[in-house]
């Protein structure tokens, strides 16, 4: 019987980190930016069916770079966690911090468990506040650490270069069109410094918009609304302008389907669900 | 819900061990819910009274809730259990939508509610029944639809109008004489408030419009634009105009004899 070679823990961890980083770097980058009315998610995604961004809860959105099956698994776990929390306690008791901690635990456990391969994913969990000061963005690298980000964050292949670019140009109180334009600029830069064009149909864009009257603030921006924002040339463009093509997830309900959940508790709040 | 039953089964309605019981439990009960379809949508309305035996437990209870964007559920029966059931139902529709990226079909929603009522059967046998009325706009077929249930979870689609709860007999009689297939949205809204008035007229457990306390029925409408609950100003106007006419004709509008 052969004796396995001794591998120092430092070396083993370094190898695993290297493996995960390479996997993540193969994927396309995505960026998450704060703007005046919320948080915008922008990424290059040729697929219309496999989303990189999704809604977790009323105010919480999720973005992921890396391997689809692995982050989809984490996303569904997050939705379950949030829905169970919200049902057990109250919708206000579901927070991005709590969710980010659960993700950190999961990723950390998988990363250090010798039996499993590390997940090749990097996540962003964002929560939009009532005021811009209340916005929270957490970045979760493959090893289970949490980084509290402000203003802008990039994950995926070319993340470092893009973050530097964004850090220099991002400022507080940008309009959605400005933030979107900056994000697209950042994503179009190749590692070798050259620029390429990303057509609108290859962009996946979603927002957490604090001005939405509904309780669920997550909304995908698609079709003509996206084209209009891209053309808006940094001018002010209303986020909740009527869009001709709505997302099929139905997140854009005319009245909130959810804020009545609260009035079921109190039983007496007659006008709470109408805007 | 499947996740919930694996993870915390004790939180599911109907999943509780009850001690053997002697006599009925006294718990607040919700009373009358009515619904009617019109070309382009469906209206669902409920009175505001909850009773406990011969007492009025609550004057301003809300018994009609949006289930999601295109459907709503009105509850009659044990209020506590019913509200919890609706909460779980709402959660389940939202959860499905987020995980799958698409909404359930209206039939799918109706079936799911059926299973939830059936799981409450043991409680129903002890007098804690929950009997909702489910109404929604079927996006695929482009029309409003109503589903009624019995305590065992039996589901049946109703055509035109439906009512549930203790005052349902009177409400149904009222709508039977007033309903027409070509109602406008506004007429359908008036119809359901008339039916609730008639139910309150003859059933002690159903509350009529309370002008002094400004408590009016909860009236909701679902069309292709989604769910909308009438604000108090709108529902009070309908209730007041009906009340005004009833001062002259206490029994309400008369249908033709032949």
UniProtKB/TrEMBL annotation, chain A:
GO terms for biological process: modification-dependent protein catabolic process; proteasomal protein catabolic process. The keyword Cytoplasm applies. Residues 230-275 are annotated as: Disordered. Residues 252-269 have a biased composition (Low complexity). InterPro entries: Ntn_hydrolases_N, Proteasome_alpha, Proteasome_alpha-type, Proteasome_asu_bac, Proteasome_sua/b. Pathway: Protein degradation; proteasomal Pup-dependent pathway. Keywords: Cytoplasm, Proteasome. It is found in: Cytoplasm. The keyword Cytoplasm applies. The formation of the proteasomal ATPase ARC-20S proteasome complex, likely via the docking of the C-termini of ARC into the intersubunit pockets in the alpha-rings, may trigger opening of the gate for substrate entry. Interconversion between the open-gate and close-gate conformations leads to a dynamic regulation of the 20S proteasome proteolysis activity. GO terms for molecular function: threonine-type endopeptidase activity. It comes from the Bacteria. Pfam families: Proteasome. GO terms for cellular component: cytoplasm; proteasome core complex, alpha-subunit complex. Its main location: cytoplasm. Component of the proteasome core, a large protease complex with broad specificity involved in protein degradation. Belongs to the peptidase T1A family. PANTHER family: PROTEASOME SUBUNIT ALPHA/BETA. The 20S proteasome core is composed of 14 alpha and 14 beta subunits that assemble into four stacked heptameric rings, resulting in a barrel-shaped structure. The two inner rings, each composed of seven catalytic beta subunits, are sandwiched by two outer rings, each composed of seven alpha subunits. The catalytic chamber with the active sites is on the inside of the barrel. Has a gated structure, the ends of the cylinder being occluded by the N-termini of the alpha-subunits. Is capped by the proteasome-associated ATPase, ARC. This is Proteasome subunit alpha. The gene is prcA.
């Amino acid at each position: 019987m052969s004796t396995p070679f001794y591998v120092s823990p430092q070396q083993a961890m370094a190898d695993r980190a290297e493996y995960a980083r390479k996997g993540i770097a193969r994927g396309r980058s995505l960026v998450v930016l704060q703007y005046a009315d919320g948080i915008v998610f922008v990424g290059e995604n040729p697929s219309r069916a496999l989303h990189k961004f999704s809604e977790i809860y009323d105010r919480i959105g999720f973005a992921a770079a890396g391997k689809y099956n692995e982050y989809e698994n984490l996303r569904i776990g997050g939705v379950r966690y949030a829905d169970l929390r919200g049902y057990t306690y109250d919708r206000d008791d579901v927070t991005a911090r709590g969710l980010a901690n659960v993700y950190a635990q999961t990723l950390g456990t998988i990363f250090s468990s010798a039996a499993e391969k590390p997940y090749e994913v990097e996540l962003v969990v964002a929560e939009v506040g009532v005021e811009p000061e209340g916005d929270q963005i957490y970045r979760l690298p493959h090893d289970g650490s949490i980084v509290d980000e402000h203003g802008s964050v990039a994950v995926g292949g070319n993340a470092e270069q893009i973050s530097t670019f964004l850090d220099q140009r991002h400022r507080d109180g940008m309009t959605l069109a400005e933030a979107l334009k900056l994000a697209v600029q950042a994503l179009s830069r190749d590692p070798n410094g050259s620029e390429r064009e990303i057509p609108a149909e290859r962009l996946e864009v979603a927002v957490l918009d604090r001005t939405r009257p509904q309780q669920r603030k997550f909304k995908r921006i698609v079709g003509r609304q996206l084209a209009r924002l891209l053309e808006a040339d940094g001018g002010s463009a209303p986020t909740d302008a009527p869009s001709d093509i709505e997302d099929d997830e139905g997140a854009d309900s005319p009245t909130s389907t959810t804020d009545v959940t609260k009035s079921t508790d109190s039983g007496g709040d007659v006008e709470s669900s109408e805007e | 819900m499947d996740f919930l039953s694996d993870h915390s089964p004790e939180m599911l309605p109907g999943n509780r061990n009850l001690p053997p019981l002697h006599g009925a439990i006294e718990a607040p009960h919700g009373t009358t819910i009515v619904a009617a379809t019109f070309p382009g949508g469906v209206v669902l309305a409920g009175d505001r009274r909850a009773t406990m035996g011969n007492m009025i437990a609550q004057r301003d209870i809300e018994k009609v809730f949006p289930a999601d964007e295109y459907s709503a559920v009105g509850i009659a029966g044990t209020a506590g259990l019913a509200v919890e059931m609706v909460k779980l139902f709402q959660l389940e529709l939202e959860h499905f939508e987020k995980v799958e990226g698409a909404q359930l079909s209206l039939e799918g929603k109706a079936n799911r509610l059926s299973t939830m009522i059936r799981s409450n059967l043991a409680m129903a046998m002890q007098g804690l029944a929950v009997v909702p009325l489910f109404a929604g706009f079927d996006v695929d077929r482009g029309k409003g639809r109503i589903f009624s249930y019995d305590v065992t979870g039996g589901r049946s689609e109703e055509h035109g109008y439906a009512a549930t709860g203790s005052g349902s007999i009177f409400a149904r009689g009222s709508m039977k004489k007033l309903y027409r297939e070509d109602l406008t949205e506004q007429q359908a809204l008036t119809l359901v408030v008339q039916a609730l008035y008639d139910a309150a007229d003859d059933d002690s457990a159903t509350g009529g419009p309370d002008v002094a306390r400004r408590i009016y029925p909860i009236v909701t409408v679902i069309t292709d634009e989604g769910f909308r609950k009438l604000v108090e100003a709108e529902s009070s106007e309908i209730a007041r105009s009906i009340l005004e006419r009833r001062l002259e004709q206490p029994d309400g509008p008369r249908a033709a004899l032949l």
